[in-house]
Amino acid sequence: MRTPTEIEISLNALEHNIRFIKRLVKKNVRISSVVKGNAYGHGIEQYVPAAESFGIDHFSVFSVDEACRVMKVKQPGSAIMIMGWIPKDQLSWVIRNEIECWIFDLERLRLCIKEAMKQKKKARIHIEFETGMNRMGLNAADAAKAISLIRSKPETLDLVGLCTHLAGAESIANHVRIHRQIKQFKRLASLFEQNGLRPSVLHAASSAATITYPAFRFNMVRIGILQYGYWPSLETLIQYIGRRKDKKDPLHRIIRWKSSIMALKDVKQGEFISYGTTFQASAHKKIAVIPAGYAHGYSRSLSNSGSVLIREQRLPIIGMINMNMLIADVTAIPDVSTGDEVILIGDQGELSISVASFSELSNQLNYELLSRLPAGISRRVVQ
Ligand SMILES: *Cc1c(COP(=O)(O)O)cnc(C)c1O
């Protein structure tokens, strides 16, 4: 069923971004595509097969429900890694389906061993170290205990990786902290190695560290925001292009969020438009009603300030954004008609509405805005 607003995912843009990332990290570094948050709002069901068609074969999610969705659409050869939440009663599903999961405390390690014994099947685990972010992971004391637990039950575990997460590699202000974290990560990893535990991958870098700290890529990187065509922060982009001759942004946004004109109306000078009195027509106006409102994820804070693209022109939103509709001033387009395409985010002709301009705030907000695009919007993969 089509919905009043629709999301398009561009295969060409995605192919371009994946090529860029592959060139950046070289062959010996595995790319895990991070598809938590409904693939940053792009839609797991649409995004995963598209990424696979360009050679991605490892997907990271936060929770077991997301893993289940990836499972349904992925190729048999692709791996899934759960970085976060698994309720106890679903650990058996995870192990049965050979899904990799992060061990961030000893309790989960013990549960994995127990469940693996029950199933007579190895649990595929990554040990997460706490290295200074102070969120999740095993500290040094727990890491030592984990080593003896793992060594005592080798038949139950497949130690796939050792990992950590960095606390803000997208900002140079965190430089010292990030270096300390990596030092601690290496220390704990070598402790494992000294005890004969040599997993096939070490990983610490998300998009920002992959760009800014090439030495911290080890042999796997967890790439989220970059593959969708956005930078973790403006600083990261500046870091990257600072080292290059070509100063153009090398990434392409893959999402386009669009709607169409539902109705047109002429409004006389002096009339108020939409709820209340926030917008009064200073002259005769032609307005377009567009079926996109805050229930569809279009923020109400863009009332009287956002813009949309219609017939390759940028047009202001006037009046309040409603639950299901917004109004644009289309006086500038005499031959406008109902059914015309309306771009909420993305390109049309030479013009573009970026997620950042859409939110009018920092780049950091890309993550939040994208992942909040409602799952109920229909999504379509296009060339
Ligand atoms: C979200 C996430 C990533 C990816 O982050 P990006 O900045 O989008 O590349 C990597 N690792 C972990 C643990 C994450 O939670």
From TrEMBL:
<dbReference type="InterPro" id="IPR029066">
    <property type="entry name" value="PLP-binding_barrel"/>
</dbReference>
<comment type="function">
    <text>Catalyzes the interconversion of L-alanine and D-alanine. May also act on other amino acids.</text>
</comment>
<dbReference type="GO" id="GO:0030170">
    <property type="term" value="F:pyridoxal phosphate binding"/>
</dbReference>
<feature type="active site" description="Proton acceptor; specific for L-alanine">
    <location>
        <position position="275"/>
    </location>
</feature>
<comment type="similarity">
    <text>Belongs to the alanine racemase family.</text>
</comment>
<protein>
    <recommendedName>
        <fullName>Alanine racemase</fullName>
        <ecNumber>5.1.1.1</ecNumber>
    </recommendedName>
</protein>
<feature type="binding site">
    <location>
        <position position="135"/>
    </location>
    <ligand>
        <name>substrate</name>
    </ligand>
</feature>
<dbReference type="Pfam" id="PF01168">
    <property type="entry name" value="Ala_racemase_N"/>
</dbReference>
<dbReference type="InterPro" id="IPR000821">
    <property type="entry name" value="Ala_racemase"/>
</dbReference>
<feature type="domain" description="Alanine racemase C-terminal">
    <location>
        <begin position="254"/>
        <end position="382"/>
    </location>
</feature>
<dbReference type="InterPro" id="IPR020622">
    <property type="entry name" value="Ala_racemase_pyridoxalP-BS"/>
</dbReference>
<dbReference type="InterPro" id="IPR011079">
    <property type="entry name" value="Ala_racemase_C"/>
</dbReference>
<dbReference type="GO" id="GO:0008784">
    <property type="term" value="F:alanine racemase activity"/>
</dbReference>
<dbReference type="Pfam" id="PF00842">
    <property type="entry name" value="Ala_racemase_C"/>
</dbReference>
<dbReference type="InterPro" id="IPR001608">
    <property type="entry name" value="Ala_racemase_N"/>
</dbReference>
<dbReference type="GO" id="GO:0030632">
    <property type="term" value="P:D-alanine biosynthetic process"/>
</dbReference>
<dbReference type="InterPro" id="IPR009006">
    <property type="entry name" value="Ala_racemase/Decarboxylase_C"/>
</dbReference>
<feature type="modified residue" description="N6-(pyridoxal phosphate)lysine">
    <location>
        <position position="36"/>
    </location>
</feature>
<feature type="active site" description="Proton acceptor; specific for D-alanine">
    <location>
        <position position="36"/>
    </location>
</feature>
<comment type="pathway">
    <text>Amino-acid biosynthesis; D-alanine biosynthesis; D-alanine from L-alanine: step 1/1.</text>
</comment>
<keyword id="KW-0413">Isomerase</keyword>
<keyword id="KW-0663">Pyridoxal phosphate</keyword>
<dbReference type="GO" id="GO:0005829">
    <property type="term" value="C:cytosol"/>
</dbReference>
<feature type="binding site">
    <location>
        <position position="323"/>
    </location>
    <ligand>
        <name>substrate</name>
    </ligand>
</feature>
